[in-house]
Design brief:
The longest helix is centred in the N-terminal third of the chain and has 40 residues. The chain has 11 helices and 10 strands. The N and C termini lie far apart (189 Å). The C terminus is likely disordered. The protein is α+β, with helices and mostly antiparallel strands. The protein is elongated, with a radius of gyration of 45 Å. A hairpin with a 2-residue loop joins β1 and β2. It has a 5-stranded antiparallel β-sheet.
Length: 380
């Protein structure tokens, strides 16, 4: 064994890729210590902030804690490694690369924090809407989340490419040309996308609303980026394009506060004028007997083909369809009883045919000829 061997001298004089082993060891130790210090600092900060947030009613500190808890351990390790590498005597070219990696690590961490902030903000917005009874906002949440995340990561990517020396002006221009080509190829999909944006912002209907459009009637189950799904009264799910939905007139019964009901009936023509005049007051009394209804008007409208026609208008104070049908049934039965008690009959389609007897044929004139059926004998 060589007695002149010294570990310290060996570390100083032995090189790897032009760097002494001792400097690499020192850089590694510094990187490890920096990582432990950063991880410990973040952990202690989160613990302190959590204890402070527990004593306050402000939700802003909770939001900050949730965002900060999204700090990436891998990016902290990369930052610590870059600090250690910065202590090495690197060539200018590698030193520039280390600087670029610093920017990439910082941009990625900021993007992760911003992405987490968007997620938390949209989640709290959905919880706030649910607490006031507005129901889930699936289309709005999906579109806003998709738009914000796309813009966020696009900005982060372009910033990193620019820092690396890439000419992002030409890159953005090429993306614009490519975007036009994609838009032309997918114009139907984009039409549904913009229709979904219109539904999310204008809110003609929301999830949970009962709507009718054309021959379709049902409850909205989901408003997506391309289609809307409706659960029909017969039970099946109907999937409709957002663009086609906005082309039609949508009746939203969820926002109905009162129902205005117009109905008519007819009585027979043998009803006297006094009886006909008393019918509107009779109908008014039947309607006002219920506190769920508000009488509007009742009129002898016209002389029909086979009936004296009446038109009645009333308001149902409750929008429930079942209540309307119960009240209409009560009104119909009460009308039957009251009109029958007064000797007034409901009209039904009738037709009166007047028959006219034909005139008798005229008798033949005297000397006009020989009558039919006569017989005679000629003289000899």
């Amino acid at each position: 064994m060589n007695s002149d061997f010294s570990p310290l001298l060996w570390l100083q004089h032995t090189t790897i890729a032009g760097l002494s082993v001792s400097s690499i060891a020192i850089a590694s130790m510094v990187a490890l210590l920096v990582y432990l210090a950063m991880a410990t600092t973040v952990r202690i900060a989160l613990h302190r902030l959590a204890s402070i947030a527990g004593r306050t009613a402000n939700r802003a500190d909770d939001f900050f804690i949730e965002v900060l808890s999204g700090t990436s351990q891998w990016l902290m390790a990369l930052a610590a490694l870059l600090i250690g590498v910065g202590m090495l005597d690197l060539a200018d070219r590698w030193a520039a690369r280390v600087g670029q990696l610093w920017f990439v690590a910082l941009a990625l961490q900021l993007a992760l924090w911003a992405n987490r902030a968007v997620t938390i903000g949209l989640r709290r917005h959905a919880e706030r809407n649910a607490s006031v009874g507005q129901g889930p906002q699936s289309a709005a949440t999906t579109l806003v989340s998709w738009g914000l995340r796309t813009m966020l990561w696009a900005v982060a990517l372009l910033a990193m490419l620019s820092n690396m020396g890439v000419n992002i002006t030409a890159f953005v221009a090429s993306l614009g040309v490519g975007g036009i080509a994609i838009a032309l190829a997918a114009q139907n999909i984009l039409g549904d996308l913009f229709a979904s944006i219109a539904i999310a912002t204008d809110k003609p209907f929301e999830v949970g609303d009962f709507i009718t459009l054309g021959s379709v009637a049902g409850t909205v189950e989901m408003v997506g980026v391309k289609t809307t799904r409706i659960r029909s009264l017969s039970g099946e799910q109907i999937v409709m394009s957002n663009t086609e939905m906005l082309k039609q007139t949508v009746s939203n019964f969820k926002r109905l506060q009162e129902r205005r009901i117009v109905f008519g009936f007819g009585v027979t023509y043998d009803t006297t004028a006094e009886q006909a005049e008393a019918i509107p007051a009779l109908v008014k009394g039947i309607i006002e007997a219920s506190d769920k209804l508000r009488f509007d008007r009742a009129h002898f409208k016209k002389f029909g083909d086979s009936s004296l026609d009446y038109e009645v208008v009333y308001i149902v104070r409750d929008p429930a369809y079942g209540i309307y049908m119960d009240e209409q049934q009560r009104i119909n039965l009460a009308l039957m009883r009251e009109l029958a008690a007064q000797g007034i009959g409901f009209a039904f389609p009738t037709r009166t045919v007047h028959l006219v007897a034909p005139a008798a044929p005229a008798a033949p004139a005297a000397g006009s000829g020989i009558g039919i059926g006569q017989a005679g004998v000629l003289p000899g």
